[in-house]
Specification:
Elements: H1 2-26, H2 30-33, H3 39-43, E1 48-55, E2 65-72, E3 75-82, E4 87-95, H4 98-110, E5 133-140, E6 143-151, H5 164-172, H6 178-185
Length: 187
Amino acid sequence: MKYIIGGAILVIIVAGFIAGIIGLASRDTPSELSTDSSLAASYLDQNSEVTFTEYGRIVANEEFEAVRVTVSAQQRTLDVLRGYDLTIEEQVRLPNTTSAYKALLYSLDSNNATETRQSAIETEDGVCPSGRRFVFEIRVDDEVVHRTWTSSCGRSDGTFAGDRSSVMTLFQEQIPEYRDIIRDARR
């Protein structure tokens, strides 16, 4: 009799364990739950654009370089910038579509581009003088609504908490022949 009761208790425990696992597996993931708060859902239907800027080493004004890629639903722009006043040395403008912009925004979401972290340093100015600084921005109606930054000197620098390498690649791939254009501009 005690073996029957023990066996019944074991079956109930195992069944409860299996039901718990099935319940956890069938729950919505946070990304499925937050579809409405995604970058694409938040900014796609607004007059928005996303920008990724890479600033070079801190050097003489004549040698300072920066590269900026800006993408909206209508246009993609690559700016090669010189000097600390960010004079446009070369610019490439290409048309874009809403579908392509939406794909970029969802890709930025999946790489946590809008994730932020606390930083004791407010801006990237002067940080990582021998390396590079990276700034990610979202603008709506020409007003910055989101701005984060990081550097190549340390993963803990700045307020950007996303996957910097993947986000940078996403922006570079918006401009066909990006690397050739940058190489030619640096000659």
